[in-house]
Amino acid sequence: MKLIDGIVLTEVAGDYVAVPTGEASEVLRGVVRLNKTGKDIWDGLAADLSSQQVADALLQKYDGIDDESARSYVEDVLDKLKRAGLIVE
């Protein structure tokens, strides 16, 4: 699973916004807003980590989260990014 090229992630008022540039604007017409944890997942994908590796990274970073919750949150964000056309298999 890989993020498509041409998407810029930027911080706006404490949230992160994925904005298409160039040819990516043909895929995404608009923006995708992510919170801090969503950005962490984005960064993991950008580093070519698997979904389980991203969930493991969340477990290391955030106190009070269990493995099932981390995996569920990663899958929810991945689904959002897939529906937006930002991920290729």
Helices and strands in order, then pairings?
Elements: E1 2-3, E2 7-12, E3 15-20, E4 32-34, H1 36-46, H2 51-61, H3 67-83, E5 87-88
Antiparallel strand pairs: 1-5, 2-3, 3-4
Describe what this molecule looks like in 3D.
The protein has one domain (2-83). Helix content is 44%, strand content 21%. The chain has helices at residues 36-46, 51-61, 67-83, and strands spanning 2-3, 7-12, 15-20, 32-34, 87-88. The longest helix is centred in the last third of the chain and has 17 residues, at 67-83. The radius of gyration is 13 Å and the shape is globular.
In the predicted model, the low-confidence regions spanning at least 5 consecutive residues are: none
Number of strands: 5
Largest sheet entry: 3 strands, antiparallel
Strand content: 15-25%
Which bin fits the share of residues in helices?
A: 40-55%
Number of continuous helical runs: 3
**Helix-and-strand structural type:** alpha+beta
Q: Helix-strand pattern, N to C?
A: EEEEHHHE
- For the CA atoms, what is the radius of gyration? 13 Å
Shape: globular
How many domains comprise the coordinates?
1
Distance N to C terminus: 4 Å
How are the strands ordered across the major sheet?
2-3-4
Mean pLDDT: 88
